[in-house]
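Before the break, one more example. Copy the sequence into your notebook; we will annotate it together after we see the structure.
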Amino acid sequence: DETYAHSSPHTCVPSVVRALDEYALSGLQASDAAAVAAAGGGGAAADGGHASGGGHSGTFSSFDALAGGNLSILFASWEVSTTGGYVAVLLGCFAAGVAVRLLRIPLGQLAKGVREDGGDNVEVDNFCSKKNICSLVLLFLSFFVLQSLGYFLMLLTMLFDVGLFVSITLGLSSGYVGETWWRHRQKSGGGG
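Here is what the structure looks like once it is written out:
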């Protein structure tokens, strides 16, 4: 109970005001606490029953195996709970980042080959030839794999784990340097 002095032009009378906790009275607090407990969060948090342990809050975190933490990689079954597993995931993310950039080289050469084989005036019979169809299917599948890998890395970045973020960006940056070196070498006539 809190007492407030209420004044009006006519009288000044102290009155008792009882603050109601609408969140607790509505039943939402109990259902939220049950949902957090079912999700493995352990129950209602001290911040008014809102979950603070599950998911992420939009800020970067860091995996800590010593503190008993687990990192779920996109699916519940893809969980990392050891330091060795986490290092393996970091190396895999680095390699995938490099691959996203370096796979652009053969994809570009494949696309260039399809354009050169067909020419500007492509006849229907020539366009539907076995060689051209195989090249187009290979081009489609290569682009599909490249885009899938790129979006997979984006989803991993959105886990807001510092190690994953740094590993992916280092891999993409290293791949970019490799791609730039390759293209410069090709332009200067250093190889084929």
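Residues 130-157 form the longest helix (28 residues). Confidence is low (pLDDT under 50) at residues 43-57. Try to locate both features in your own notes.
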